[in-house]
Amino acid sequence: MLKNDISLSLGNSRKKLMMFPINAEHVFIIDKNRMFMLIQTRCAICNTLNNASLVYKEKLPSDGIDSEPYAPRRKRDYYHYKMVKCNTCGLVRSDPIISHNDLPKLYHDSKCTYTDVNENTPLKRTYGKYLEHLIKNFGIKRDSYLDIGCANGFMLEKAQEFGFTNIVGVEPSHDAIERAGINIKSKIKEGMFDENMFEPEQFDVITFFQTFDHVTEPNKFLENCHKTLKQNGFILAINHNVNSLSAKILGERSPIFDIGHAYLYDLNTMRTIFEKNHFKVHSVFPVKNTISIGRIIQLLPTGKKTFDVLEKIISKTGLESVNLPLYVGNLGIIAQRA
Fold first, then answer.
1. Of residues 145 and 31, more confidently modeled
2. How far apart are CA 149 and CA 208, in angstroms?
3. Stretch (H or E) spanning 230
4. Residue 1 contacts by C-beta under 8 Å, 6 or more apart in sequence?
5. Beta-bridge mates of residue 54
6. How far apart are CA 3 and CA 38, in angstroms?
7. Phi and psi for 156 in degrees, rounded to 5?
C-alpha cells in the first residue's frame, strides 16, 4: 500500500495531510490531532460512485476535525467537504466524508447553542405550522409522535400542545438533551436513530427538521422510519433546498454547504428518494420560515467586524428578537407509509 500526500484546502491555509488509500472507497487521513477515516460516498438515489461533477472543493478546519463544526445552529464557519453533483439525478453530496462510525461521538460531544429568541420560538412557529397543517388535512391520529434530531425538545412540547399522548425524541447531543425542559428531558432518547431503537409500527407521525441533510445513509434511515411508522403513518420533514434562490445567490457562502451535511436535496431529489423507499409522497414544497433578525444576521456571509457591528446594532435597538416570515431556502415533504 503506497502513501499519498494530498494537499487539501483547510480554512484559509494550506496544509499537508497524509492520506493512506485502503481500497476504492476508503482512505485514512492523519493530521496533527488524530487519525480518522474518510469514505467515498455514492449517490443515494442512483447508487453510483464516481458519476458526479465537482461543485466545490473541500474547505476543512485547519486544526483538524472535532465536534465543534457539528454543533447545531452554530455561527457560520464555511467549512465543508468536497461537494459533488450526480450527473444522472442531480443529487448533491459531500464526497468523501468522515466515516459513519466516527459521527456518533462528534454529535454526542457537540454543544447546543439554541436560544428562545433566535431559535426555539421562531422554529417552533415554523415547524408547528406545518405539523398543524398535517394534522388538520390528513386526519392524523394523535396517539404517538417521534421527532428525530429533536435538539432540546421544543417540538416535543409543540406536539404535546397539539394533543399527542405519547411523544418521544431522539437526539445524539448530550448537551442538547441537558437543555431540555424538565417535563421533556425524560422523553428524549440519547443516540443516533437506528433500527434497534424502537419496535416496528410504533408511531403515527415521525418528524425530522433540519436532520435529513446530516444523514450519511439516507436509504437505511428511511427504511428504518418506514418500519417504525404504523400502517398509513406519516412523515413530515423540513431541510435545506440546494436549488433555492438563496443558495444560488450565495453560492459556496450559503450556510447549506456545511461540514455536517452529507446530502443536499431539491424538490425533485427529495421526492425521488422517498418514493425509492416505498413512501407515498403527498407534497414537496418550499417552506416559509418564521426567522428572527438575530438569526438572519448570524447566517449572512459577512466578515467578523461587520457581523460584530450588525449584532451590536440589533441588540441595542431590540431588533434581534423581531421575527419575519421569509422563504430562506428550505423545503418540506409530507409522505406516507405505503
1. 145
2. 6
3. strand 229-240
4. 20, 21, 22
5. 84
6. 15
7. -65, -40
Q: Is the pLDDT of residue 318 over 50?
A: yes
What are the pLDDT digits (tens) for 150-160? 999 999 999 99
144-148: strand order across its sheet: 188-190, 166-171, 144-148, 203-209, 229-240, 323-337, 279-292
- Dihedral sign, Cα of residue 102, residue 108, residue 110, residue 113: positive
* Fold classification of 116-337 (topology level): Rossmann fold (3.40.50)
Q: H helices of the chain, where? A: 103-109, 121-138, 154-161, 174-178, 218-228, 245-250, 267-276, 293-299, 304-317
285 Cβ contact partners less than 8 Å away, ≥ 6 residues apart: 267, 331, 332, 333
What does the DSSP 8-state code read for residue 308? H
Residues in CB range of 227: below 8 A, 6 or more apart = 195, 200, 201
The pLDDT of residue 34 is: 56
Q: Which 8-state DSSP code applies to residue 60?
A: B
Q: ∠ CA(8), CA(14), CA(20), 5° rounding?
A: 35
Q: Report which listed range, 209-213, 251-255, 257-261, is most confident.
A: 209-213
Q: How many helices (H) and strands (E) does the chain have?
A: 9, 16
Of 32, 14, 61, 6, which Cα lies nearest the Cα of 258?
61
Per-residue b or e along 133-157, where b marks 16 or more CB atoms closer than 10 Å to that residue's CB? ebbeeeebeeebbbbbbbbbbbbbb
Q: How far apart are the C-alpha atoms of 200 and 229, rounded to whole Å?
A: 7
Q: 228-245: buried (b, 16+ CB within 10 Å) or exposed (e) per residue?
A: bbbeebbbbbbbbbbbbe
- Structural domain boundaries of the chain? 4-109, 116-337
